[in-house]
């Protein structure tokens, strides 16, 4: 003998009604709040996982963007400007080797400096040759591309359009593939990558907002769970069962087996009147952005149907 109790955000749980009303209501209250807590925890894990995935994708795109940046040109080492020291004529005459005298041997430091100077000059020469070669190759490629383009234009100009088929010739000309240079390709890929990064940042911002709202909902739920409250069940039509008044009776005498009921709590209004409130969760912090779009569309359709029937629009969750 079971009934289904609806609560939270589209949640339901089965309860055995082969018992008294009082312990049944306590079991329903405890069980439903625990289920809502578990549900919010799962959504929190889901949102954290999605944010982590978005951030990882963003990092990969940032690395791709760095690879697309043109490499910095190798700068030739700057030559140190050495100030020429004025030589003392007496010292120069003294240092000059006399006829028949062997020149003084160079020190190890002097030899090392000469070797470094020689290597530096060789590196500069190699760099200069490399740049010349690159410049030459680039000019040759540009010249070849220009000639190919000119030949294509000349062929198209020489080829007469068939009578009555001018539109077809123009269509074929439009369908000709555009030659994409390396610079154009890099610019295109950079623009696409930047657009993807911006989209991921928006997703991270939206999901972070959801996560923040979810944390607030968890704190609110924990606070509500600890509060003393009067809970009851209602029919889907809104009719209240007033189970607290019959706490000693068996539940199956007041509730119908295999039927769905809605969990509510009874609060005091401004004028001490009883206010019936469904125990639900805010769907705004639970749904994904895509689910939000679907939900809003469903709400508009329901409101339109209610408006035609002259009824009350459904409560938004």
Question: Describe it for me?
Answer:
The chain is of the alpha+beta class. Among the domains are: 2-68 and 186-286, no CATH class; 287-317, no CATH class. The chain is built from six helices and five strands, in the order ββαααααβββα. The chain has helices spanning 21-68, 89-95, 108-158, 166-174, 182-226, 289-309, and strands spanning 2-7, 11-16, 230-234, 260-268, 274-278. Strands 1, 2, 3, 4 and 5 form a five-stranded mixed β-sheet that branches. Helix 1 (21-68) runs antiparallel to helix 5. It is elongated, with a radius of gyration of 42 Å. It starts with a strand and ends in an 8-residue tail after the last helix. Mean pLDDT is 83; it is low at 79-84.
Outline type: elongated
What is the average per-residue confidence, as pLDDT, rounded to a whole number?
83
Oligomeric organization of the protein chains:
single chain
Instruction: Return the structural class.
Output: alpha+beta
Give the number of DSSP strands. Answer: 5
Rg calculated over all Cα atoms = 42 Å
Note poorly predicted spans.
79-84
**Overall helicity:** 55-70%
Share in β-strands: 5-15%
Number of helices: 6
Series of secondary-structure elements, N-terminal to C-terminal: EEHHHHHEEEH
Instruction: Give the CA-CA distance, first to last residue.
Output: 31 Å
């Amino acid at each position: 003998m079971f009934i289904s109790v609806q609560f939270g955000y589209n949640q339901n749980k089965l309860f055995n009604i082969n018992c008294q009303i009082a312990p049944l209501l306590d079991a329903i209250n405890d069980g439903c709040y625990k289920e809502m807590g578990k549900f919010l925890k799962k959504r929190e894990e889901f949102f954290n996982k999605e944010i982590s995935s978005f951030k990882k994708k963003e990092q990969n795109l940032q690395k791709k963007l760095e690879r697309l940046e043109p490499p910095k040109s190798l700068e030739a080492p700057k030559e140190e400007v050495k100030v020429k020291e004025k030589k003392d004529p007496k010292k120069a005459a003294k240092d000059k080797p006399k006829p028949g005298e062997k020149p003084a041997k160079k020190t190890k430091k002097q030899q090392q400096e000469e070797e470094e100077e020689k290597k530096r000059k060789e590196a500069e020469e190699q760099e200069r040759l490399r740049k010349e070669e690159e410049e030459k190759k680039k000019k040759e490629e540009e010249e070849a591309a220009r000639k190919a383009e000119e030949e294509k234009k000349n062929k198209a100009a020489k080829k007469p359009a068939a009578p009555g088929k001018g539109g077809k010739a123009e269509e074929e000309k439009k369908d000709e593939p555009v030659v994409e240079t390396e610079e154009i390709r890099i610019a295109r890929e950079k623009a696409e990558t930047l657009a993807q990064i911006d989209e991921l940042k928006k997703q991270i911002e939206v999901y972070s907002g959801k996560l923040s709202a979810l944390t607030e909902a968890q704190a609110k739920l924990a606070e509500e769970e600890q509060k003393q409250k009067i809970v009851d069940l209602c029919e889907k039509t809104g009719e209240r069962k007033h189970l607290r008044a019959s706490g000693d009776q068996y539940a199956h005498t007041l509730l119908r087996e295999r039927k769905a009921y809605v969990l509510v709590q009874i609060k005091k209004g401004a004028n001490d009147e009883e206010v019936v409130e469904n125990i639900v969760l805010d769907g705004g912090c639970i749904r994904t952005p895509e689910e939000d779009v679907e939900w809003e569309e469903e709400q508009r359709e329901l409101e339109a149907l209610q408006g035609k029937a002259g009824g009350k629009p459904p409560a938004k969750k």
